Structure formats: structure tokens, C-alpha cells
Amino acid sequence: MRKLKRVIFILGAGALLSACSADENGSGQMGQDIIPAVEVVQAQYGGLPLEERLNGIVSASNQVEIYPRISAPIEEIYVQNGDQVNQGEPLLKLRDTEYRERLRQAEASLRISLAQKRQAEAALGEIDSQIRRERILAERDLSSEMELEQLEARLESARASLELADAQVEQARSTVDEQKDALDQTIVRSPVSGTIGQRGAEIGMLVNNSTRLFTVGDLTQSKITINLTERMLSYISTGNTVRIFSENLPDTVVVSEISRISPFLGAGNFSTQAEIEVENEDRILLPGMFVTVDILYGESEQATVIPLSAIYRNPQSGVTGVYVATSFGSETTMIQEPEDGAPTSNLSNPTDVEFRPIEVIARGRDAAGVGGIRSGDWVVTVGQNLLVRDNSEIARVRPVEWEDIIDMQRLRPQDLLREIMNEGNVAEQRRLEIRNIN
User: Fold this and answer.
1) Per-residue confidence (pLDDT) for residue 14, from 0 to 100
2) pLDDT tens sequence across 124-140
3) Please, what is the angle between helix 413-437 and helix 2-24, to 10°?
4) CATH class of segment(s) 2-48+302-437
């Protein structure tokens, strides 16, 4: 953080040193002697990682919301938020008096249907016996053909009655099974193993199939859902490496890969969803959390690579390019750091700077591959506006590491503003100290 504060404050600090020097020499024209102070980083040569930054939503593995299948008041609750449960374990009990009564009535109806079936079977058997006797008598010419036809008609009717009784028995059994299932549903059980959360149940509450009772999921396994546009599907695929991080999880980056991509685009938005499965044994990713996902999908062609903050569009000419410290090198004399650690340390003597137009070949999240400059050139990353404002071709420069510039680029605007305000207070105190010394 101390390095970062120096990056932010270097502009004002360099100007302050030059101004103080002019004042000590008694020039009386402080503004004319100010030499801008800038920060530089050395351009590199190589491939630029290609990344796509998206936002994702975390959910637990097998995360499900639990709703009751019946309507009844809650009598007992067996679990609380944060409890671990196994698949099939009871979570709460609904009042079952009404459902027990319904089951009793259904079982009684089944017994009635079974009795009616037995009656139909007995009637069919009796008619069947009569027909056999009539046929024997008819063979001996002791019975008329009309009597036999009447018995056969009664036989068909008896068979139909038996089929009806069979159907009524099946219907009654189905009703019994349905009522048993409804009675079983008075005990709400977990469909998966996991952790209980988002409890919305209280004893005495009347619930129905639209009342969410709990959310259950395995917190040791997380799933992150991201949206991919139709364009992204041309270069992003399953297996691509991803980096997952959040501003609420400082210094934590989770590495995984895209597990699956839905092949169906949404109507109207022309986007689809991709899922990323992540091991979450430490439970740092919480369901419902918003995270940032960087998808790494390749590498650009070899080129000179510079931080994005080095790219500057000259407001006077409209040309995009970079400022290069042309005479800065390992032999350049540097102002050594004072004992009190003042922010005016490690600045060079006045160094020539030159604006050079560039061609952006590839652009990543933090850096760009460009043409127009060479690897090893020292490019200005902070302070270009001072060079343009003062129309200056010289500057005092301070070399910084790539990591420091990347960290600064990733700061949110509100964080950067806070750092500037903090360092502004330090600068004011420093001015007062110098004035008192003089």
C-alpha cells in the first residue's frame, strides 16, 4: 500500500521539489521552473493473455429450495439455519389430523369396494352355474332356447358388474395411496444432503405449495453461473481456465474451468449460461454472492506489451500513443530516498520524453500489445496530462514495477480517490514543514 500511495502522490511531490528549488534560488517565477514528475515502466516483449471479464452468481452444489406439497399449519420444526442434514432427513412436521381422517375414509371406501367386488364375483359364479345346468337340460330337450338366452344375457351383465367392481377397487386403492402420500407429506424431508439456510418456517404458520420453507445445498461444492453472449461463444468453450475473485475476498483468487455451456440462446437477449464448478472446502464462496470471473481463452501474437495506463490519447492532436523517456536508462542519476521516507524520493534528474504514436494489436484486461515502440523502452504510465499541460519535453521520472502499475489500474475509482485524498493531507503537511524550514 505504501508503494501505491507513492504512485498516486508522485505527481504533486515532483512538482513540489522543483518549485522549492526554484524558490530557494530566488527566481520569483516558480511556475516556469517546474519540471513534471512522472512514473515509467519498461515495455516488455511477449504474448498477451486474452481474457474476458464477466460477473457471476454463486450457488451451492445441488442447491434446492424446499416447498411443502400440501397446505397445513406447521406443528414442529427440527432444524435451524446452518444445520447439516442428510438426504431424507425430516425438517419439519405439518398438522396431520385432517390427512389421517382422509386416509381413514379412503381405506373404508376401499373395503366397501372390495365387498362389492366379492358380491359381483358371487353373482357371476351363480349365473355361470345356472347356464351350465341349462345347457345340459337343453341337450336333453328339457329346456327352451329362450331360457338359455336369458341366462347368457344375465351372465354378460354379471361380468360387466364384476369389471365395474374391479375398477372401483382400483380407484379406491389409488385414493388410499394418494391419501397415504399426502399424510407422508406432513413430514417435510430434505431431498439432498447439505446445509440448511434461508429458513422461512415458523411454528403455527399456515403454509401451501408456494411457501418457501428452506434452502438446502452442499456448501463444500459451489457452482458459478455466468452469461455468455453469442459473440463470446466463438472463442469461449468448456475447459477454458477461469480466475474467480471478489472485492469482499481480498487476496483470494480461485482457479477453475468452465464445466458446461448451455447450447440454447435466450429469446431476445441472444445469450446463454455457462456453469463453473468449484471446490469450496473452506466455504469462502457463499450462495448468492456476486463474483468477478476472468476467462482465459488464449494468447495474442508476440508484440511489445505495455500497461493500459501507458496508452494516452493526445487531446491536442487526437493521436493515440505513449510517452517514452528516451534518455532514461540504468546510468541515469536518481535522487536518493530521504531518511524520513518523504514521497519525493527516487526521482531522476531531468530526462527527455517523447510522444510516439502506436498501433494497438491486442488488448487484454491489464495490458496491450502494441506496435510503434520497442521492448525495453521506458513508457510513462502516470503523469501524461502534466506533460501535455506544460508542453514539456523533459520530466523527472521514477521507475516502477509492473505489479505496482497493475495494482493501481485495478483500483476502483472510489478507492483511488480515497488514496489521493489521504495523500493530499500528507502533501499539505509536507509543504508546511518545508515552509517552516525555509
Assistant:
1) 44
2) 887 877 777 767 666 66
3) 40
4) mainly beta
pTM here is 0.60
Percent of the chain residues past pLDDT 90, beyond the cut = 49
Q: Above pLDDT 70, what percent of the chain? A: 78
How far apart are the C-alpha atoms of 410 and 238, rounded to whole Å?
27
Tens digits of per-residue pLDDT, 161-218?
A: 888 999 999 999 999 999 999 999 999 999 999 999 999 999 999 999 999 999 999 9
* Whole-number Å distance between alpha carbons of 309 and 317: 19
Lowest mean pLDDT among 82-91, 314-323, 387-396, 407-416: 407-416
Query: For 53-64+216-299, which CATH superfamily applies?
Result: Efflux pump adaptor protein, beta barrel domain (2.40.30.170)
Q: Categorize the per-residue pLDDT at 429 as very low, low, confident or very high, splitting at 50, 70 and 90.
A: low
Q: Which residue has the higher pLDDT, 430 or 7?
A: 430
The count of C-alpha atoms lying within 13 angstroms of the C-alpha of 340, restricted to the half-sphere facing its C-beta, is 6
Q: What is the dihedral of CA 297, 301, 304, 305, to 10 degrees?
A: 0
Whole-number Å distance between alpha carbons of 49 and 231 = 19
Q: What are phi and psi of 59, to 5 degrees?
A: -135, 160
Within a 13 Å sphere around the CA of 229, how many CA atoms are in the beta-carbon half?
A: 6
Which has the higher per-residue pLDDT, 54 or 404? 54
Name residue, grid cell 399424510. 183
Amino acid at 293: V
Q: What is the 3-state secondary structure (H, E, C) of the chain?
A: CHHHHHHHHHHHHHHHHHHHHHHHCCCCCHHHHCCCEEEEEECEEECCEEEEEEEEEEEEEEEEEECCCCCEEEEEECCCCCCEECCCCEEEEECCHHHHHHHHHHHHHHHHHHHHHHHHHHHHHHHHHHHHHHHHHHHCCCCCHHHHHHHHHHHHHHHHHHHHHHHHHHHHHHHHHHHHHHHHCCEEECCCCEEEECCCCCCCCEECCCCCCEEEEEEEEEEEEEEEECCHHHCCCCCCEEEEECCCCCCCCEEEEEEEECCCCCCCCCEEEEEEEEECCCCCCCCCCEEEEEEEEEECCCEEEEEHHHCEECCCCCCEEEEEECCCCCCCCECCCCCCCCCCCCCECCEEEEEEECEEEEECCCEEEEECCCCCCEEEEECHHHHHHCCCCEEEEEECCHHHHHHHHCCCHHHHHHHHHHHHHHHHHHHHHHHHHC
